[in-house]
Amino acid sequence: MAREGVRPSYDPAGPDNALRGALQDLRTGRWMAMRTLLADTAQGWQWTQRTQVLAAAAAGTDVVRAWLTEEPGSVHAAVMHGRVSVERALRAQRERHRRTHELWIEAWDAAQSASRTAPQDPVPWVCLLALAQLDPEQRWEEHRAAAPEPMLPPGPWGLLAEAGKRDPYNREAYHRMLQFLYARGGTGRLAEAAAFAQWATGQAPPGSALHLLPLYVRVERYRREGGHDAALDLHWVAEEAARESRRALESWFAHTRAAERSPLDLNHLAHALWGSLQFLDAARVFEEIGPYFTPPPWVHRTPGRDRAVDVFVQARDRCRAAADGSAPRH
């Protein structure tokens, strides 16, 4: 890979050129490229990932509605309608919009409908799981099912299981479960999230992206503690932090091919290895990242997205220097 100092920037498609083309078409109000892309996408990680990225881009448009109107029998259009509806509800909640509850119910209906239209697809169940974070008080029965492990709290475990039946260890489903646990609020709830992440990694086979979940919880804890504080760097060099990053490297990175790796996961792994002073291993991950920077987790190290790129570049250069033998390893 070229080592020139090109400044990275965020691209939601990452290295997925086919997805990038569909996104460009979508932004001009057209849906044909999206339909073609989804027809050519196999079930699994890529299917879930592509539908999520497309929905984020389509949520502010009527493109999916136009597709569904034109092809009311399209299974993929029904799934994307559920995706877009959920994205809108989550955005409304973040913005404290007065229509949040209305959009939540619409999204729940759309996701339920998609689950019937596409009974073998995990995405409608991932959508329902995503909506659970809008119910932190767990008023809905499906959001307070008993956990499979006594040390874990009640939650939308049935929804997670339904997604798992269709795509075992679905990456997004487990991240949505984490978001539900975060939404319940309180510093103590992070202990539940950490316990969940450890439980999930214990269930996951080699190569599963679930092995990175503890890294995400660590970033969330750092964010809640305020971040941007040199004193908090001990958060990353602690023995447990180093162990988590090493486990993710050995259990996920070492068992996957480039096409199976999310840029967000790669950025979290590089960040964790750099933060725990494992520069040589971090350099390997930075090479895999290439130009595909993602704002999280770097944005939590410094105020402002532009400065997050600076942190990324500084970390990458430090690790490359160590790998090239021009700087000490620790």
Automatic annotation (TrEMBL):
Organism expressing this protein natively: Streptomyces albidocamelliae
Stated name of the protein: DUF4034 domain-containing protein
